[in-house]
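In this section we walk through a basic example: taking a raw amino acid sequence and producing a predicted 3D structure, encoded as discrete structure tokens. The instruction is simple. Fold the sequence below.
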Amino acid sequence: MAALPTEVLLTLLAGRGGLSPADLAAVGQAGWEALDARAAEHRCQPILHRTWGCVPAGEAIPAAIRARWAAAFRASAITALAQRADLHLIVDRFDAAGIACIALKGSWLAWTCYAEPAQRVLRDLDVLVRPDRALEGRALLLRDGWSEGDSDGLAAADWLARFKHLPPLHSPSGTVLELHTRLWDQDGRNPPEPAGLFGRSQLSTGTRALRYLDRIDNVMHLAVHAAFHRFDGGPLMLLDCERITACLGGIDHAALWRRAGEEGWARHAALFIAATDRWVSPGIAQRWDCPIAVPAELVEELPFLLAKPLAAREADIAAAKMARPDLSPLEKARRVLARRERHDGLCDYLGWIGQEVVGIASGRSEPGRRQAIAALDRWLAS
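The resulting token sequence is shown next.
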């Protein structure tokens, strides 16, 4: 029996479904090493430990691989403690200054919707504030000992005007923070961000000021975020959908689909739920009464986007931008020229252009993945 592709195997392992003993036996030592490397890239080792490290079926996985997963789980648990402490420091500091804030994505999900926060590894904390208080909040944290990360050569005020979050900040303990002022950037593929997010937000249990998006806004954000990034964020994207479904009971599905249709994110949500139904939690699409049929072939190709090598991300993004049919060649050229100001010098800028060109050219060796990205973009825009 031929082994499953690494991307499919990792997606199924993380999602706990659809794998037989024969599937596991067919992987082989080299296959497990490749899968473990990919799992590390996509922050999946801790959840693989909890899912497969202590069950009889997991004995088909080499002991050395399982030991790495256990070590990653322990490291994630320690990191999560520091991140949680920093999140509460941020919330308390902002609350004292009258700055309302909302924890986004894993910054709330890890401690609320997962059995253990160590299972949901965070690269950084994502916290939403109102645009008119963002620079003030950033200044407070800098005075408290946080330091500036890579700003791409732009001032914080320029980031505020152009992007969904300010340049990253680093806490004294090493936590990375992205201070958001919008849920997503506008590049012609995303729907307008709805108003009223703060008014609908909910207070997190057991806290004085930590808030999270309401049920429908949470699903909307996760779905649009996944589609915007063309599902390159790893299998954790789909696990988030499953966990938020389990912990946020009582979602009014009729209201969700009504809002999705009115606000332009119905296809994003349908694809997000269909992918979760296929690869993580069979039956979720029926329970959510999803009104939009998603092409089966699109869903079947998603593991090759979800679990792709991280080194392929930039090349895929560059190729997808150049292939967009809704942008004229003049607009594409304008966007390339607009990146000039984000580089310290001409050589740096020309180097970036060279990397983009090489990325697009190298993508010809991965036609299947590029075709899947193009099909995804076309379906979302149709």
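Looking at the output, two observations stand out. The CA atoms of residues 102 and 116 lie 21 Å apart. The radius of gyration is 21 Å. In the next section we compare this with other chains.
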